[in-house]
Design brief:
The chain is of the alpha+beta class. It has 5 helices and 4 strands. The protein has one domain: Hypothetical protein yfbM fold, CATH 3.40.1760. It has a 4-stranded antiparallel β-sheet with strand order 2-1-4-3, sandwiched between helices. The longest helix is centred in the first third of the chain and has 26 residues.
């Protein structure tokens, strides 16, 4: 057991499929409501999955949706940074930020990059988390690895994917 951390991307074609599914769900829900409340008809063109992710940045996403682009094991300080971002974005968790998701934007990734460079990640601990890196050699190794992953995340966003962080411990 231990802290396993992932950034996953949802490609543009997968978002189109998700959008179709969400429109079907909304249409069905609205049709049932329309029969009771005589509300305005549902406009499927008004739903935008990208906007929905931005407005609901801590939504639950099934793990099978998307593909992994980054993986860390026991990078507790980074996990703490993501946990803080999750709560900043209004997230709530039944399990102490375990199996929760947070959508990452380009601004989030650039802020993370700056915080890594300036060594502003707060020490984070937990039973399965491991320890913060202490030696200069460890810090340099982790920094190089993190910067490579930052580049992967930024490239995914540039390619119009939606990316999110999730973890389990």
């Amino acid at each position: 057991m231990g802290l396993d951390m992932h950034v996953r991307k949802i490609n543009s074609w997968e978002k189109k499929d998700l959008q179709k599914m969400m429109i079907d769900v909304l249409r069905t829900a609205c049709e049932k409501t329309l029969k009771v409340n005589n509300a305005d008809s549902f406009d499927p063109n008004s739903f935008d999955i990208e906007q929905w992710f931005l407005e609901n940045p801590t939504t639950t996403i099934p793990y099978s949706v998307g593909e992994e682009i980054c993986y860390w094991r026991k990078h507790s300080d980074l996990h703490g940074w993501m946990r803080d971002l999750f709560y900043e974005k209004g997230g709530t968790s039944e399990y102490g930020f375990n199996h929760d998701c947070v959508i990452l934007t380009k601004d989030d990734i650039l802020r993370l990059k700056l915080d890594l460079i300036e060594r502003k990640l707060a020490p984070t601990s937990g039973f399965f988390f491991g320890q913060s890196y202490a030696t200069e050699e460890d810090i340099e190794y982790r920094m190089n690895d993190d910067m490579e992953k930052i580049d992967l995340m930024l490239q995914a966003i540039e390619d119009k994917a939606t990316i999110y962080y999730t973890s389990s411990w």
